[in-house]
Structures are given as C-alpha cells and as structure tokens.
Specification:
- With about 600 residues, the protein is an alpha/beta fold.
- The chain has three domains: about 240 residues, Glutamine Phosphoribosylpyrophosphate, subunit 1, domain 1, CATH 3.60.20.10; about 190 residues, Rossmann fold (3-Layer(aba) Sandwich); about 140 residues, Rossmann fold (3-Layer(aba) Sandwich).
- The chain is built from 19 helices and 25 strands.
- Helix 10 packs parallel to helix 14, helix 10 packs antiparallel against helix 17 and helix 17 runs parallel beside helix 19.
- The longest helix is centred in the last third of the chain and has 21 residues.
- The chain is globular and about 75 Å long.
- The model has no long low-confidence stretch (mean pLDDT about 95).
- The structure holds fructose -6-phosphate (F6R).
- Fructose -6-phosphate binds next to helix 10 and helix 17.
- Fructose -6-phosphate (F6R) binds next to helix 10 and helix 17.
C-alpha cells in the first residue's frame, strides 16, 4: 500500500523516480507525486490518478535534477485528489516528505500544531510529518528525524528532504518496509526490491526503527539512539525478466500461466538440500496438538484448503483471519503451533497477529513468497513458496504455491507424528502430474462463461468440504477484479436463506471434485435449477444431466489435492471477465497489493 521511491546520484533523478514509481504502482494508484532539489529549492509536482498522468505533467519539467523522492498513493486518510497526493511540503516549504503507513496519533499531533498556528493543506495523516519536522528545534536534521520517530505512533516508512541539504535523503521505518539500493550511479530508496531490479547490484533492508542518511557518496545507518550501525547489503538476485510483463497483456495473465511453475518450484524447494521442513524441530512437531493457520484474503483461503487436507490426516486445524486473531480474546491451548501465510510477508494484520502469537510463546512458522520480508525475520521458522515475484494485485500463482507448501507441511507433520520416514515430498509425483495437466489445460469454455456472467446480475460459487474453500477463492478473485457482486457458500447452506436470491438472473458456479460429496452437491444443483438460475459445474467427473447449463471439465488427480486444479479455470475466469468488461485486471478499483496498513 503506497509506494515510496528516492534517488540521489549521477543520473536524472526525475527519470529514476518516475521509472521506480511505475514499478511500484501496484501498491496504489490513486495519485502520484515527485519532489526534487532544483537549484537549491524543493520543486514539487503531484497529481491525482495513475503514474502515467504524473509522467505527462513532468514532461518538460525537472530537467537537471539529481536528488528527489516520489510516491504512488493508496488513499487511507482523505480522498484521492491533488491536494491529498504525496509528497507533502511543510508550511514554509523547507521540508518535504513521502510516507507509507498510518500515523495513528495524527489528530493529536495536528491539533497541537494547529494551536501553534500551523496551517495544513491536506486531509491526510501524513502531512503532519512535514509540519513536525519544520517545527523541530533540534540542532541537526538527524536529531530532528530521531525526535520525529519518537513522536509518531503507528506504521511508517518515510523519506525526507530538507532544503539546504541538497542531494541528501533521510529515511526511517517502523512496521512498513523500506529498502536502500546501491549502484555505481548512486543510491535508491524503495518500498520493495522489485523497483530496484536492473538499477542496483546490492540492497539493504532497513530494520525496525532504523534511521538512514544518504548522500551522493555513501549511506549511513543509525539506531533509535543515533548510534551508527553497520549496513548489511544483499546481492540483487532478481532479473528484469522476473518482474516484467514480457509479451503478456497483463501481469495477472502472466502469473496465471506461471501457476504450474510456481507449484513445481515449491515442490523442488522441499526436495533440495535446504529442505525447510527438516529445519522444524521433530519434538516440536511430534507434540503439536493444535494448529492455527492465520492469514488474510487469498492466503487465508489457502489455509482453509489445507484444513481439509490436514483433517484427513487426523490433524486438527483452525483457520483464523489475521485481523480477527489480533483482537479476539486469547485462549491458551496445549502445544499449539501457529502457521502464518503471506505472499508479500508485509501484510500489517498478519505481522501483528504473529507478534501476538510470539508474545504468548507459541512457536511460529511462516509460509511466504518474499524471502526478505518483515514476517520472515519475525517468525521462528520459514517455509518459502517459490512462485517468483507476484505483481498483479490479485494473487494467483502464490495461492497454488501456498497450498503446495501446506500439503507438504501437513504430510511432514503427519509423518513425524506417526514415526514415518519422510525425507522428501510425499506428493512429488502427484504434484508433478498436476503441473503437467495444468500446463496443458485448455481454457476454451472460459470466454463463454465470462459472457454469461456479464449477461446476468449476480454470481454464487458453491461447494462442499474443500470445494467450498476453492469457491471462496474463486469468488474473491471474480469480485475483486471485475467488480461483480459474487458470494461463496457451502452448497448445503443454500436452502437456509440464500436460495431466496436465486432467480433467472443468477449464475451459480458449482465446484464438485469430491466423489463422496458429489451426489449431495447434485441435490443442490437441482434445487438451484428449479429456481431458474444458470448452473455451471466445475468437475473432473463425467456428468449427463439437463440441470447443468455449462460444464467446465477439469483434469483429474488424487482428490485430496484437486484444489490445485479446480481453482485454475476460476483464476482465468476472473481475469477474462475483467478484461471483457474493459477493466484493468492488474489495478482493481480501491485495492492495492501488500496491505501494509491495518
Ligand atoms: C486477493 C489478494 C489478497 C491477499 C491478501 C493477503 O487476490 O491478493 O486477498 O491475499 O491481501 O496478502 P499477503 O498474502 O501478501 O499477506
């Protein structure tokens, strides 16, 4: 949520910052802005809308600048508008800031400043940062930044320019990511590594409460007490190809096509010598009595899929949304293990939920796709998914990678508990077969189904058991990128209320991959058909009945892992429906990737 970029060096700061903002745009696209030192003055340009609008406005401006900061916004406080766009200048135009996160005590701070006569120009929480720095009486800019970090409550990654200190950028972070990139042509600041690919050879992930001071020559880091710290740089191991769209029209399409690769790479990880499962202490796993899986959105849905898989192996799992786990009454359970799932590893609710588990001394495992993420540093054990960078806002390949990792983890727990030798991935052959089938999957009916959805008023996804988890994920995908109202529910629950909404303008997509539940699900289909809805069945079984308007056939595998397959046409359905509606699937309305605010 919100992307920050900064540059100081030999190259054109304008070009570097605007290119960085394009790469960070998936974190928010309500407005964008840039501020650079131009002839000693802080020159600010910002505009409501996407980064391309800003690029257009900047065309003949900021020609010879070598230091600046930029921002692409996902609105939290204040509507998307020019005045609420970042960067923010202080009242006297001597300080400029960009901010990602939420300043929870901004109303108090703002009230105090207003009493001192400071006039604000925006409705945001962020502007208070610039005004506080302007008002500071500290003798050095570094001390002003330190004082600021002591005053702010909430989450923040902040980059700051001070008039008079040309070609210098200050930065701080707490609960929001910020990275320093190093190259022969200068230094960069960025909210994520992706924006630094091809620009830098090394990067440093700023730690909590770290203060950084960058100039033309070097980068200096300090702790909260302003003691100098040594900076650890990591080699940049991503290539431009990893993060580019290539020949695909959208990132989401590229990432759907990479689902088989994401599964394969995640299996290979546990086959390698760095097998992450082997790092889990055997006695811990053997004694586990209660598994809690925690995540948000798609990551939570992956957890629900695994819950069924675990149950079949006599492992009790409870899935909880991170935003609920944080605030519900904590009850201690004997030998509990918490598993956190997060593609980005930066989701604020998931990170806070993990901190709570740690406070209660519960061992924590994180399943994540970004090895450098905040959550990795906090968790006791890490199981990586190997989906590669996921740029589209709607998660697809990471979901399949997450359920692959969860299947492996549940198998591992089952084996340890039952004293079965389990050195490699038990599902390896079956999952490779799934990979092969997905690589050859034909999406030929999906255009027709997208059309059907657009001709109707509402969509329901239903399923029983693990197919309900898939329905949840399919429904989330469709609604988030096509803005079509869709709901998912347990097939058996329809007649307890929702059937009242079923009419001839409704499409019901039924996911039925579990043999022992198939006849029961067919009963639901007849009930729906009797109310005039269009019924679409997603299944690997051969079915002959007039009750179905469209059959989406999927390849078969062990029914325990059918969720890897059944979601695949549904991911494409969401994509195609958005495109058919003329929407940009990579930038869904009101959403952004990496939800770093609560
Ligand atoms: C939906 C989607 C979101 C994320 C959720 C958690 O397509 O992408 O629901 O799954 O915001 O994000 P991570 O996995 O990064 O914690």
């Amino acid at each position: 949520m919100c992307g920050i970029i900064g540059y100081v060096g030999k190259l054109s700061a304008k070009n570097e910052i605007l290119a960085g903002l394009k790469m960070l745009e998936y974190r928010g696209y309500d407005s964008a802005g840039i501020c650079c030192f131009e002839k000693g003055e802080l020159k600010l340009i910002k505009k409501k809308g996407k980064v391309d609008t800003l690029i257009e406005v900047c065309k003949d401006k900021l020609k010879d600048v070598h230091c600046g900061i930029g921002h692409t916004r996902w609105a939290t406080h204040g509507d998307p508008s020019d005045k609420n766009a970042h960067p923010f200048l202080s009242e006297n135009n001597n300080v400029c800031i960009v901010h990602n996160g939420i300043i929870e005590n901004f109303e108090t701070l703002k009230g105090n400043l207003q009493k001192q006569g400071v006039r604000f120009r925006s409705e945001t929480d962020s502007e208070v940062i610039a005004q506080l720095l302007q008002k500071s009486k500290c003798e050095s800019e570094l001390k002003k930044v330190q004082e600021l970090s002591n005053m702010l409550v909430g989450s923040y990654a902040i980059a700051i320019l001070f008039k008079g200190l040309e070609n210098q950028i200050f930065a701080i972070r707490k609960n929001s990511p910020l990275i320093v990139g190093k190259s022969k042509d200068g230094y960069y600041l960025s909210s994520d590594v992706n924006a630094l690919v091809d620009k830098t050879t090394e990067y440093h992930i700023m730690e909590e409460d770290e203060i950084v001071w960058i100039d033309n020559e070097d980068c200096y880091a300090f702790n909260k007490n302003l003691q100098a710290k040594e900076i650890t740089y990591l080699p940049m191991n991503l290539s431009k190809q990893d993060i580019s769209r290539g020949t695909f029209e959208h990132y989401m399409l590229k990432e759907i096509m990479q689902v088989p690769m994401a599964i394969k790479m995640t299996i290979n990880e546990c086959e390698s010598i760095i097998n992450p499962y082997n790092k889990l202490p055997k006695d811990l796993i053997r004694d586990v009595k209660h598994l809690t899986i925690i995540g948000c959105g798609t990551a939570f849905n992956a957890g629900m899929t695994a819950e069924h898989y675990a149950r079949e192996r006599d492992i009790i799992v409870e899935c909880v949304y991170a935003s609920e786990y944080r605030y519900r009454k904590f009850l201690s359970q004997e030998n509990e293990l918490c598993i956190f799932i997060s593609q980005s590893g930066e989701t604020a609710d998931t990170i806070e939920a993990l901190k709570i588990a740690k406070e209660h001394q519960i061992p924590t495992i994180v399943i994540t796709n970004v090895s450098t993420s905040t959550i990795n540093k906090l968790a006791d054990y890490v199981i990586p998914t190997k989906a590669g960078p996921e740029i589209a806002v709607a998660s697809t390949k990471a979901y399949n990678a997450q359920i692959t990792a969860l299947y492996n983890l549940m198998d591992y727990i089952y084996c340890v508990k039952n004293k079965i030798n389990c050195r490699t991935c038990i599902l390896k052959d079956k999952l490779y077969d799934v990979v092969n089938k997905l690589e050859n999957y034909n999406f030929d009916k999906i255009d027709e189904l997208s059309q059907l959805i657009l001709e109707n008023e509402r969509v329901f996804f239903i399923g029983r058991g693990v197919d309900y988890a898939t329905s949840q994920e399919a429904s989330l995908k469709l609604k988030e990128i096509s803005n079509i109202h869709s709901e998912s529910l347990y097939a058996g629950e329809l007649k307890h209320g929702t059937l009242a909404l079923i009419d001839e303008n409704t499409v019901v997509i039924v996911i039925a991959t579990q043999k022992h539940l198939f006849d029961k699900t067919m009963n639901s289909i007849y009930e729906i058909k009797a109310r005039g809805a269009k019924v679409v069945l997603v299944t690997q079984f051969d079915v002959q009945t007039d009750a179905i308007d469209m059959l989406i056939s999927i390849p078969t595998t062990d029914q325990a892992i059918m969720a890897e397959i059944s979601i695949y046409p549904m991911q494409m359905l969401a994509y195609k429906t958005a495109v058919l509606k003329g929407l940009d699937p990579d930038k869904p309305r009101n959403l952004a990737k990496s939800v770093t605010v609560e």
